[in-house]
Amino acid sequence: MEDGSGSSRPPGTQSRAPLLETEIGHQSGGWQIETEELLLRAFQTAFAEALAFPETHWPPEAGRAELSVLLADDAFVQSLNRKFRGKDKPTNVLSFPAPPVLSPAFPGGEAGLALGDIVFGFETVAREAGEQGKTFDAHLQHLAVHGLLHLLDYDHQSDDEAETMEAYERQILAKLGVGDPYADDAPGPVRAGERA
Questions:
Q1: Residues 139-172: pLDDT tens digits?
Q2: Nearest-angstrom CA–CA distance, 31 and 52
Q3: What is the C-alpha separation between 50 and 44, in angstroms, rounded?
Q4: Most exposed residue of 86, 98, 132, 190, measured as fewest CB within 10 angstroms of its CB?
Q5: Measured distance CA(65)–CA(72) in Å, rounded
Q6: CA 43, CA 172: separation in Å to the nearest integer?
């Protein structure tokens, strides 16, 4: 639909979804180059879907979002988990939300938000996938969606929060062609990582 013609958006708001710019770095681990493409697709899909969820509060003037991702090994993730969460053990994924402050630092002075950082621990992701009878790719996509939702202020501290977050994870994963990680017939524990 063209701008302004029959749009249900209030006057002066953007007519397109914000652009998500994702930077992926490598610290260590056995990560494959194909992993980056898989993660980029998962993050883009999750971000686009999450903007439509009623609990997602996205400033209409923010035309861009920025996400930093680090593919690390368990030792590095354990050091972060110990430092920021007081838990001296590795985990599958950690999310570090950035303060929700609009910045004009994007190209062309466009306003945007830095979402924060997501860090994955290779050995834990691989081990959990095997234990749960899932492919590495399917498990990683679930963790990517879970981590991004944490950056958008979703959590699972209460049963209601967990129910909402898990429903949205299922919806996004279905768009990615990934089965329901919370299904009754899904093997093993399924709780994904944490928010720092």
A1: 999 999 999 999 999 988 889 998 999 999 999 9
A2: 32
A3: 10
A4: 86
A5: 23
A6: 10
